């Protein structure tokens, strides 16, 4: 296994060890605040996400979400989580969202125009936001 600065590495970039030695070292900025991996991870886990399916539905059904809508949606998810919900139907203005509360992930989105004659299954709660 090749060695770089006393550390064995399983791979090398094109050009080998000599290329690594030629590359300029990126200086660390001591005055920049350091964010730990745990802080970044915790922030990402708490943040509401949209599945690829939900994002496709938002785009194809032309469902616009403002920053205020997102805040209301996140608040509704938090409330549902506090009550022990797992999968919720969240009604927000003229929109409906199915959300996995545990994962904080919007699974699908429906505009009021498409709500008629729909049946929502596999949910254990509903929140009117």
Please tag this protein with its features:
alpha/beta; YaeB-like fold; 129 residues; 33% helix; 4 helices; two-stranded antiparallel ribbon; single chain
Structure description:
With about 130 residues, the protein is of the alpha/beta class. It contains four helices and seven strands; from the N terminus they run E-E-H-H-E-H-H-E-E-E-E.
Percentage of residues in helical conformation:
25-40%
Regions with little confidence, pLDDT below 50 for 5+ residues: none
Global mean pLDDT: 82
* Coarse morphology: elongated
Distance from N terminus to C terminus (CA atoms, Å) equals 58 Å
Strand content: 15-25%
Number of helices: 4
> Oligomerization state of this entry?
single chain
At the fold tier of CATH, the topology name of the domain at 48-128 is YaeB-like fold
Tell me the name of the CATH class of the domain at 48-128.
Answer: Alpha Beta
Rg from Cα = 23 Å
Q: What is the CATH architecture assignment of the domain at 48-128?
A: 2-Layer Sandwich
Query: Structural class of the secondary structure composition?
Result: alpha/beta
Tell how many strands the DSSP assignment holds. Answer: 7
Topology readout:
Blueprint (H helix, E strand, L loop, with lengths): L2 E2 L2 E2 L7 H7 L14 H10 L2 E2 L1 H9 L6 H16 L4 E6 L2 E6 L4 E7 L13 E4 L1
Parallel strand pairs: 3-6, 4-7
Antiparallel strand pairs: 1-2, 4-5, 5-6
């Amino acid at each position: 296994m090749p060695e770089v600065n006393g550390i064995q590495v399983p791979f090398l970039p094109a050009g080998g060890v000599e290329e690594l030695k030629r590359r300029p070292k990126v200086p660390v900025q001591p005055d920049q605040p350091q964010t730990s991996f745990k802080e970044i991870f915790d922030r990402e886990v708490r943040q509401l996400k949209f599945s690829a399916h939900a994002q496709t539905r938002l785009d194809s059904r032309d469902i616009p979400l403002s920053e205020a809508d997102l805040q209301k949606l996140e608040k509704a998810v938090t409330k549902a989580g506090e009550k022990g919900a797992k999968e919720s139907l969240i009604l927000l203005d003229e929109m409906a969202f199915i959300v996995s509360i545990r994962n904080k992930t919007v699974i699908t989105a429906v505009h009021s125009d498409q709500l008629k004659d729909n049946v929502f299954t596999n949910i254990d709660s509903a929140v009117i936001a």
